Amino acid sequence: MKKILLAIHDDFARKSYAELLKGEHFLVFETNDGQKAFDLAIKETPDIIVIDLFLSTIGGLQLMEMLQQNLLTKKIPVIFFSQIERETEKEKAMDLGAKDFIIGSITSPREVVAKIKIHLGFQKAYHFSITDENLSVAKEIKTDLGYFPYLECPRCGSKFELFLIRDLSKGKDYFKLSFSCPNCGYTE
Q1: Residue 145 and residue 147: Cα distance in Å, rounded?
Q2: Nearest-angstrom CA–CA distance, 145 and 39
Q3: Tell me: the pLDDT tens digits for 12-54?
Q4: Do 145 and 99 fall into the same domain?
Q5: Single pTM value for the model
Q6: What is the biggest distance separating any 2 CA atoms in the chain, rounded to whole angstroms?
Q7: N or C end of the chain: which has fewer CB within 10 A?
Q8: Are 7 and 84 part of one and the same domain?
Q9: Would you give the DSSP letter of residue 169?
């Protein structure tokens, strides 16, 4: 059973993600405190850590630096989490070695679980740019899924990209499809 450490400040969000992950047969450790997260990471050596930017005692970026300096934790993949998008913090997190940066307010809980599974190797993601050659197929797929056939992000106007996520824990033929903005992360 894979172990996940959720260090998320908001109790409701943390507990919601914990329940979803437990339902997917993960062993979940939770805290909203940066120092406790560091102590848990050393004690439990989780397979992956989800860190909120805003934690009590120690902030997420400082916690990431501490994890990177410790021999027991420096190779554990880290995904950053925030309810609001802040480009400077995202850049800092990625520079520190984060594998991903999730904006909770625009990413569904199921997508968060999918991203965790991808980084643990349970899923494989395929990414397709929408070009003039496949434009009509992309519009048809969006319409079939019940979305408007627009292929531009409603938040920033960038062109959507098509993502297929293969969930190997549900069988080799199980895929989830989404349209995502490569610039702001908005997903349909």
Answers
A1: 6
A2: 44
A3: 989 999 999 999 899 999 999 999 999 999 999 999 999 999 9
A4: no
A5: 0.69
A6: 52
A7: N
A8: yes
A9: G
